[in-house]
Amino acid sequence: MSTIDHKATAAAILPLVGGAANVTSVAHCMTRLRLGLRDRSLVRDEELTALPAVMGVVDDDTYQIVLGPGTVARVTPEFEALIAEAPVTAEALADRGAAIRAERKSRNATPFKLFLRKIANIFVPLIPALIGCGIIAGLNGLLINLGWLPSVTPALAAMASGFMALIAVFVGYNTAKEFGGTPILGGAVAAIIVFPGVANIEAFGQKLSPGQGGVLGALAAAILAVYVEKWCRRVVPASLDVLVTPTLTVLVSGLVTIFGLMFVAGEISTAIGDFANWLLASGGAGAGFVLGGLFLPLVMLGLHQALIPIHATLIEQQGFTVLLPILAMAGAGQVGAAVAVYARLPHNTSIRNTIKSALPAGVLGVGEPLIYGVSLPLGRPFITACVGGAFGGGFVGLFNMLGDKVGSTAIGPSGWALFPLVDGNKGLGETIAIYAGGLLAGYAVGFLATYWFGFTQQMLTDLNTAPAEDAPDAKQREFSPAGV
């Protein structure tokens, strides 16, 4: 069979399987063209089997068209080429983003990343309280600076600080729950860390301080408690379990916590704070550039979860985390990149509509719709978005080096949603201005980098077309599938 025949066969098959819009994946084995389909009901089986080159069809996990050895290897690339020629739409990009997300999820199933996911599951439930208390703390600071409502500010201070004073207990509770122990026992062991009476205890030649070790100490203490509890469940007779297991769990884990973990975790916590301050004080713009530029790839790899305990430790120590405003610049680069995609594809109304609907969320710091719906499936705009984030991070990092610390009193929000949580070592107005300047830098560089370097000429040719439903020959044109 000649090349033209192979192309004709592919062209005959495509409309009979529902068109390019209905195809989500293309592969072949020795004899079969294997297609992933969105809607199986669109396939016209009888007409397919009537084609001269088709020997039969098999409906399995994928829809399989039997073409025979040799023929299938030649028809498949022609089939893929026909699909690639169809205009790219928001639906296609969304499918491609979903495929990337699913692939990333499967790759993240390593022991280390599963451990990080457990760590994230411990701290994520605490974020609403961190946000609420952080905003109250910011409001209280503003009232104190203005000299307003002096009778109210002590109450606001209590509301803002109460949760942080006991955060170790909540971390211990969630840790035991996540690692398969009894949550209340994890909380009980972690509560030792914040108990004022530990000030009367000496370990490693020095008096302990209430709260020493913080969330890291609570995390370690609760994990230890889980293992002690599980050991007790195995060896303690069932008749004594209700008395012996909780007693030994709290006793053994508590002693190790007081005479070991509190001191070690305290040293680690101090080292984390000192390193973060040193990094931005000495590295400045360079450190901010690297952190802001690498955050989106870290999210893709699932490694950003390792930063959650670090943020919590910095908030507990200093009242705010200096890392989050820099990392938030990745979202600014993403917004700038999305606006550039919108400007560069004036004829692709489908993608532009997706951007218009996702952009407000992106501005408020919710970047997933833009990442998985636009930039990541397109490829190059994801890279240029990282460049925008790098420049935004460099801007904030530069001011940190100059002595103007910009931090966040809570974990979670970014973009404009972070403004109520911004705090620092200088005036509130100055701190907000620096953060806003970083966002503007991220927007601008993300836009310019994407506008000039985010597309090849071939990409513009393929993408800058109206979707099939807007074209006069709509019946002959189909959507591009995901991942092809």
Automatic annotation (TrEMBL):
<protein>
    <submittedName>
        <fullName>PTS transporter subunit EIIC</fullName>
    </submittedName>
</protein>
